[in-house]
Description:
Elements: E1 10-15, H1 33-42, E2 47-55, E3 76-80, H2 84-104, E4 111-115, H3 119-128, E5 136-141, H4 153-159, H5 168-171, E6 178-181, H6 187-190, E7 197-199, E8 222-227, H7 234-244, E9 250-255, H8 259-268, E10 272-274, H9 283-287, E11 293-296, H10 311-318, E12 321-324, H11 330-334, E13 339-340, H12 346-358, H13 362-379, H14 382-399
Parallel strand pairs: 1-2, 1-4, 2-3, 4-5, 5-6, 6-7, 8-9, 8-11, 9-10, 11-12, 12-13
Amino acid sequence: xxxxxxxxxxxxxxxxxxxxxxxxxxxxxxxxxxxxxxxxxxxxxxxxxxxxxxxxxxxxxxxxxxxxxxxxxxxxxxxxxxxxxxxxxxxxxxxxxxxxxxxxxxxxxxxxxxxxxxxxxxxxxxxxxxxxxxxxxxxxxxxxxxxxxxxxxxxxxxxxxxxxxxxxxxxxxxxxxxxxxxxxxxxxxxxxxxxxxxxxxxxxxxxxxxxxxxxxxxxxxxxxxxxxxxxxxxxxxxxxxxxxxxxxxxxxxxxxxxxxxxxxxxxxxxxxxxxxxxxxxxxxxxxxxxxxxxxxxxxxxxxxxxxxxxxxxxxxxxxxxxxxxxxxxxxxxxxxxxxxxxxxxxxxxxxxxxxxxxxxxxxxxxxxxxxxxxxxxxxxxxxxxxxxxxxxxxxxxxxxxxxx
Length: 404
């Protein structure tokens, strides 16, 4: 697709996604797969060049054979390693040289899209903003704990003596050309400053067609799949279910530090079932067919309130009713078909909703799950979101051409 100059939009993406074949080197890398698919789809609409800033713990394994997993073919790979200051300085110099060489070849991007407020990228943006001619600079904010944060004077003073580091609350002010938001609730930080924005919450990673709904009997069954971490309040969720004293069962699968505690709870309570870690992440969607309602118990902890929980889209693709907190703007995706509980008085609120849902007709829960599934597949596929983000970027490029 072309912009006003009758050529394809040129984008430079500065992110953290890993190259092809790297997923097996660290299981936590799987969470980036959705963004990889998104940028691969966006490349169908625009000419996309990518740079990857990778965590130092992968340095020792960088020469291992690939595993066939998806990734981005970066034109430049940078590293966050120790000693931190030295490698940040080296990385930003390499990035600057890469950009200048690109510009000298006549390949200056129309927009630079920067993923999150990272020190190396912030330093590069600070330099880029001083150039007499530059592209638009767009922030893709997937998570941040610094938006709207009141910074004590003592902390601001300390950062004056930290080379190549910048507080998020200060760094975000550099990105005034546009913003791609993970959580729609983050718009409150950008709209007052007149920064144009578009909502790109997350991507579901697996295509899945739920089996036909069947007429089932028995108590309503609840479920959760995903990361077993405190930020998702998994253990308090289990306790809330047990205290709700409903006739149904709760099923959990996933991986994380809480696995041992969940095993013990399952041994003590016959209505709680812990299925551990499934062989493949995509198996979770088939596993979810054993339940009627999936629970998203994510809390609004620092940083997570500005990012959308991608598991909501996976839940939606599974075709099940969803009981969720509002954290990250979940209600903007689920709409009226979602069932919500408050994070304040977490266990008490969740207990009440579990009892309420347990009394609902299963047919109504199936209807909600089907409506959510259809909405997620139509509006939140990689193709649909790539199209929206491309149209947003093309619009701001045409209305605010590269600075002269």
